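Q: A reviewer asked whether we had any structural model of the full assembly, not just the individual parts. We don't, so I'm hoping you can provide one. Inputs are below.
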Amino acid sequence: MNARITLAVALRVLTQLRRDHRTLAMLLVLPCVLMSLFWWMFQDSPAPIFDRLGPGLLALFPFIIMFLVTSVTTLRERASGTLERLLSMPMGKLDFLLGYAVAFGLVAAVQSGLAVALSVGLLGLDVSGPGWLLVVVAMADAVLGTALGLFVSAFAQTEFQAVQFMPAVVIPQLLLCGLFVPRDRLPALLEAISDVLPLSYAVDAMTSLVVTTQTIEVWRDLGVVAGCSLVVLALGAATLRRRTP
Amino acid sequence: MPTMSDVVVEISDLHVVRGGTPVLAGLDLTLDQGVVGLLGPSGCGKSTLLRSLVGVQEVRSGSVTVFGLPAGSPGLRTRVGYVTQSASVYDDLSVAENLRFFADVLGAGPEATARAVDLVELGDQRDQVVGRLSGGQRSRVSLAVALLQAPDLLVLDEPTVGLDPVLRRDLWGLFHRLADAGACVLVSSHVMDEAERCDRLLLMRAGQIIADGTPAEIKARTGTTDIESAFLSLVQS
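A: Here is a predicted structure for the entire assembly that you could use as a starting point for your response.
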């Protein structure tokens, strides 16, 4: 572990993003557009569905987007030889992974800051808890997505394969996280599965922030998400090999 | 700094298998200070041998030590410079941004970045994005990364492919200056006309080193006047 190297990786990833105007625009604008579309869908419905499902969606964007972005960028590092070069230098595996997590966590902060401001300010989402905590939860979700993306990129040989991991890793979590059917109303086995999927806690954290001012459960859920991210980052570190065949 | 007599690399009975095929089968080699050329056709195992030296190649058996430490040891990572065959730099960053990043990783200062840019003569391109440079310019950026620290062992996989003859001459001059300062510079090439520029030559074919000596020695031993003919005569005998 070396703070200088971690910071260098994070700055480099951010510089690369800054040069890629199209990706940057998509990262920042797309969640706002989708949030607005979601709000619009329920304009004519009498039940407050936007208030119930909106927060979960705020948890999903950073998770899914960072998962995709990271799995493709890391794969590119593996394929271009830059990862091999870095690992032949005094670069710790965790420095590399944490650098990515820091960079994408910061992007997620800006991304969710915009999406939360839009949802609360313009679309009338009622948030009982503190708004800044919504952004913190979103950052944790982004780091979780980054960690999972780094991990699965080890099992893909091409960018095409890497993208296919999205439906495999993300969609089951999306279906079981409580957005479609509240988790306590799932069949027992599926409820047990949803209890071990990290995205469930991310969505729970967002939802409780909206419905109650009690933040103790939010912090507990946040702890679970952060813990899972650390475990997956450690697994990801194990897949980074200095020596390759 | 290693002295003239120091052994830089010691390889004994190295076996490497890639994709089920033995690439190196019981290779022995000792390297010390100087510019060493590793010459042989594509696919003969040059890159695999270089990767083993740097410690990024999975080896089946045998030992590779560099400055007395197992290849790839943490203590070697600032002493060994490695340039892969394809440019391992970030295409979406500028020349200067690439070098600054790798310099930060290595703990080298801004003056190292400026010096590396000058050494590969990319001063005019320093703020251009690498992806828009020519192939030769991209490989020079990759070479510049290895020159950020003055490495004690510099491993270069085909670094002069596609370069302008003037720059090629200058780079060979640079390799010799590094060697004169005590470094071991191992350069692979499939172009036989680069052989004459080396202090010592290793001719490689099908995973074996078939000749080892100064260019003059190899030519004298085979009774030929150029390395290409020497290579042919060694293969046919």
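A: Points you may want to mention in the reply: The two ends of chain B are 41 Å apart (CA to CA). Strands of chain B lie at 7-18, 21-32, 34-39, 61-66, 69-70, 80-83, 153-157, 184-189, 200-205, 208-213.
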